[in-house]
Specification:
Length: about 160
């Protein structure tokens, strides 16, 4: 199974990018043992449209086009379900068990997700009700994916 984090906007070089890279490498390494064949990040440019609604729609269309038709969509959205780390591990396990080819975790731009993403999402996932900077959301998602794999493999990283 392939995992993709698709995000609107670019990470700048610095400690945040280093932390993101570290968790993604840990996730890739640990995930190979349970059938995760790839884990990538795809960054898309923010729309330059002056209207927020049109920006959301343009970004949503670009995200859906970028992920491929065989991917299950999980939209990170502040109105989504607040899942525990064990529940995120269960999500991965269910998709692995069902032979799902891919899961794409979508992080919208500053204005949020457009309708196309929200309507196609099999799950809306929240990291609490607070609004987080998109760079931190990427890091938190990468850490939770790594944590999910350690839960599934019995690694002692997760002690919750």
């Amino acid at each position: 199974m392939r995992i993709l984090i698709c995000a609107v906007g670019r990470m700048k070089t610095g400690p945040e990018t280093q932390l993101l890279d570290r968790y993604m490498e840990r996730f890739r390494s640990a995930g190979r043992g349970i059938g995760i064949s790839a884990a990538d990040i795809r960054e898309l440019p923010e729309s330059r449209n002056a209207n927020a609604g049109l920006r959301r729609q343009a970004e949503a269309g670009a995200m859906v086009a970028a992920i491929g038709a065989d991917s299950r969509i999980v939209a990170l959205d502040e109105t989504g379900k607040d899942c525990s780390s064990a529940e995120i591990a269960g999500l991965l396990q269910r998709d692995l068990d069902s032979g799902s080819p891919a899961i794409s975790f979508l992080i919208g731009g500053p204005d949020g997700h457009g309708d196309q993403v929200l309507q196609q999402a099999g799950l809306r996932l929240a990291f609490g009700r607070a609004t987080w900077p998109h760079q931190l959301v990427r890091i938190m998602l990468a850490e939770q994916l790594y944590r999910a794999v350690t839960i599934l493999t019995g690694h002692p990283y997760h002690r919750g």
